[in-house]
Design goal:
- With about 210 residues, this protein is α/β, with parallel strands linked by helices.
- The chain has a single domain, classed as 3-Layer(aba) Sandwich (Glycerol-3-phosphate (1)-acyltransferase), CATH 3.40.1130.
- The protein has a seven-stranded mixed sheet with strand order 1-7-6-2-5-3-4, sandwiched between helices.
- The radius of gyration is 16 Å and the shape is globular.
- It starts with a strand and ends with a helix.
């Protein structure tokens, strides 16, 4: 049995609350990512996943709680803040659902709002390879077959602002997605492919 290839595990803070943000390719991602870390991870996952018999117990076992993606789920945001306040790792998938074409898509502002409200660092994560593992067997034989890759980036904070508003949350969300995209192979970056190229070119020019 092959485990996932993991890069950057040292970038996860050893203590204190932090927000893990990742792209999303397979319904097993909320289980795969916590399994490769050495700290307790609590996952915010779409509420539909908790309706599946038997498998819903697995989500709870891995420390997940539901979020309603149809609107502003204030209860889920409060729970997210409690997780951070308790000094735990909170895993969020800003896209809100799996990417069916494996490419990164626009994110929702929930992770940015939690970051602003808690002051916690954001740790970007890129995962790929899980899209090739058949569902639901990924839960029972998650690392057999196509190799799963997890790449963890350095912690960062959203831009400093005087007041959190819609535009600030949108800008911070774009920044979060860009950090994730930079960790992904080029073919997975989706609509962030060009922004990543622009940022990399600017960094080379400044070097």
């Amino acid at each position: 049995m092959k485990g996932p290839a993991v890069e950057g595990r040292e970038n996860v803070p050893l203590a204190g609350g932090a927000i893990l943000v990742s792209n999303h390719l397979n319904n097993a991602d909320p289980c795969v990512i916590p399994a490769i870390l050495r700290r307790r991870v609590v996952t915010m996952a779409k509420k539909e996943m908790f309706r599946w018999p038997v498998l819903n117990l697995l989500f709870y076992f891995f420390g997940a709680f539901p979020v309603d993606r149809s609107g502003a789920d204030r209860a889920a945001l409060r729970e997210a803040q409690h997780v951070i306040d308790d000094g735990l790792l909170l895993l969020m998938f800003p896209e809100g659902t799996r990417s069916k074409d494996r490419r990164l898509h626009e994110g929702f502002p929930g992770s940015a709002l939690v970051a602003y409200r808690t002051g916690a660092p954001i740790v970007p994560i890129a995962i790929w390879g899980t899209e090739h593992v058949p569902w639901p067997w990924v839960f029972f034989r998650p690392f057999i077959g196509p190799r799963v890759h997890v790449r963890i980036g350095k912690p960062f904070y959203p831009p400093h602002i005087e007041r959190v508003n819609t535009q600030a949350a949108r800008d911070a969300t774009d920044d979060i997605m860009l950090h994730i995209a930079e960790l992904l192979p080029e073919d997975y970056r989706g609509e962030y492919r060009e922004p990543v190229a622009t940022r990399q070119a600017a960094a080379i020019k400044e070097a």
